Amino acid sequence: MLFDCSYSSRFTAEGGDNMSTFFQNPLIGVNAVLIFAFILCQFVPEHNLKGLRLVCLSASLAALFLGCLSLVAFNQSVAGFQFLVSSLSIPFTNLSFTLGADGLSMIFLLLTLFVFPTCFASA
């Protein structure tokens, strides 16, 4: 299988069923919002600066909101990485992609997600 993703999180629903991917891993939601905004910006005409600023500002505010949700879901008493996602991207070369967050990276993630809307709003 080309994208075989395995999720590791502390959130599971009653009865052992997994909850939706976003609630298991809010970092995927942050990345998805930013990638969607990047693709959307490619279709906004170059001369429409207000449209580009609006797309960038709204996407960065949505990412900030999702980042705050990930901070609420982050368990500080657990050492190591949380919200882990691992994907074997190209099986025949054995390349893989792993995404996760620990305590220090959560601080820098929120700092980055706070700076971007501030920059887009002041532009």
Could you explain how this protein is built, in words?
54% of the residues lie in helices and 17% in strands. Helix 2 packs antiparallel against helix 3 (49-73) and helix 3 runs antiparallel to helix 4. It has four helices and three strands. Strands 1-2-3 form a three-stranded antiparallel β-sheet. The protein has helices at 21-24, 26-43, 49-73, 103-122; strands spanning 4-8, 82-90, 95-101. The protein starts with a strand and ends with a helix. A hairpin with a 4-residue loop joins strand 2 (82-90) and strand 3 (95-101). The protein is of the alpha+beta class. It has one domain.
Distance between the termini: 44 Å
Please list the strands of the largest sheet in the order they lie side by side. 1-2-3
**What is the N-to-C order of secondary-structure elements (H for helix, E for strand)?**
EHHHEEH
Low-confidence stretches: 1-19
Strand elements, count = 3
Cα-based radius of gyration, to the nearest Å = 17 Å
Let me know the average pLDDT.
79
Strand content: 15-25%
**Helix share, percent:** 40-55%
The biggest beta sheet is recorded as: 3 strands, antiparallel
What is the count of structural domains?
1
